[in-house]
Design brief:
With 415 residues, this protein is α+β, with helices and mostly antiparallel strands. It has two domains: 203 residues, no CATH class; 180 residues, no CATH class. The protein is built from 15 helices and eleven strands. Strands 2-3-9-6-8-7 form a six-stranded mixed barrel.
Length: 415
């Protein structure tokens, strides 16, 4: 069998290398290889850039938000949250936990006001589940009570950069948050609480920077009339992709009325869309390789027509139809392997150059990145290689079957 394969591969290589009567066939062969190379390189570059953007978006969202959010059904809140934390603290994948309160209100400064999403956190554990302290661009992360120059005390508040721009608030300014919690008629006065601005944060995600404000748990319990309760517990993991397994363990230990949401569940539309877009781009760019595959079909058909007499001689000397078929399948396979390897090397080289030298930059005032992000994944290289070689091999099936079906007597007689 090994001797047979080497003989068939030897003839296939001779057919690819030989100077043919019609030089046009060689030209089409080179075009086929070039088409596979361009298609593979384009796929690697595009998928690597999409991986880079997905990774950046995910890291920024998870840096601001959390990996798992533990809540109760109907958002009734968790009263004894410290006891709940102790129950799940020894789960190996959990690296940090922090209580939070999340609610909506209106923020006002001077003559300017805006809607705000208020997130309350425990300053002592916030760093265990969030990178907010790394995103402070002005001022400091101080949510505790601050004594003003007139002797009064106010809780600190940290605003998103664009939210602060909306209401023209600067550090050390006093802003007021109004909560509609518990207001059932137009005659009721909403809960109002003043805060002193201690800093701004910027995550690069407009959704957060334009609408979020951070205050302390103690202040939020008073403002939103939570009593001793919190909305839930934020949990950070050592590996974000183990979130579903950790949720199963949490459900086993806590049960009803608690339930947990993973980072993917909280942004399901966004991450599902990014995955779908990646699959769509893979399929669309495979069309470039498919065009090259059609060139392979035409090339091999012309080779069969040119080598009809040689095929007849081979079959008369004892070669089987299956052996002849393998010869032309190997031709398509060699074109596919050569084009795939060359394309993957080019794609890898360009992606590596962008990662190292950042020669493609992005406008910082439009995007949250200064350079085009690139992230290469081995699974993409493997999938692209299999797809490209598979398409080339598939393209060689029809010409190979046509060559195998030739009658050796007729092939020799009429050539």
């Amino acid at each position: 069998m090994r001797r047979l394969l080497s003989y068939e591969l030897f003839i296939a290589r001779r057919y690819l290398k030989s100077r043919r009567k019609t030089g046009f066939i060689n030209t089409i062969t080179y075009i086929s290889i070039l088409g596979v190379t361009i298609g593979v390189a384009a796929l690697i570059i595009v998928l690597s850039v999409m991986n880079g953007f997905e990774s950046e978006v995910r890291d920024r969202i998870l840096g601001f938000d959390t990996h798992i959010r533990l809540r109760t059904f109907h958002d009734r809140g968790i009263e004894d949250y410290r006891a709940v934390q102790e129950i799940i603290r020894d789960i190996p994948e959990i690296t940090g936990m922090s209580p939070y309160i999340l609610d909506k209100g209106m923020i006002r400064h001077s003559d300017y006001s805006a809607g705000v999403i208020v997130k309350a956190a425990d300053p002592s554990t916030l760093g265990d589940v969030s990178d907010l302290d790394q995103n402070i661009i002005y001022g400091e992360l101080n949510l505790n009570q601050i004594r003003l120059s007139d002797g009064r005390k106010r809780y600190g508040i940290v605003l998103g950069r664009y939210l602060a721009d909306q209401i023209f608030a600067d550090t050390n300014d006093v802003v007021v948050i109004m909560s509609p919690k518990g207001v059932r008629s137009m005659f009721q006065v909403p809960e109002v609480m003043p805060f002193v601005v201690t800093g701004y944060f910027e995550t690069g995600m407009f959704e957060y920077d334009n609408s979020y404000a951070y205050i302390s748990i103690e202040a939020a319990q008073k403002l939103f009339k939570f009593g001793e309760k919190v909305s839930g517990i934020e949990i950070r993991l050592s590996d974000v992709y183990h979130a579903n397994q950790v949720i199963e363990k949490i459900d086993e230990r806590l049960g009803f009325p608690y339930f947990a949401l993973s980072w993917f569940d909280m942004r399901k539309n966004l991450f599902s869309w990014m995955q779908l877009e990646k699959i769509a781009m893979f399929i669309i760019l495979c069309l470039i390789i498919l065009v090259a595959a059609f060139n392979i079909i035409s090339t091999l058909i012309m080779v069969v027509m040119e080598k009809t007499r040689e095929i007849g001689i081979l079959k008369s000397m004892g070669s089987t139809s299956r052996s002849v078929m393998r010869i032309f399948l190997f031709e398509g396979l060699v074109v596919g392997i050569f084009g795939t390897i060359l394309g993957e090397l080019i794609g890898f080289g360009l992606c590596w150059a962008q990662q190292t030298y950042h020669f493609i930059s992005l406008p910082g005032d439009v995007y949250f990145l200064s350079t085009l992000p690139v992230r290469m994944q081995p699974v993409d290289f493997i999938a692209i290689g299999i797809a490209a070689i598979g398409l080339c091999l598939l393209a060689a099936v029809y010409p190979a079957r046509r060559a195998a079906s030739l009658d050796p007597v007729k092939a020799i007689r009429y050539e």
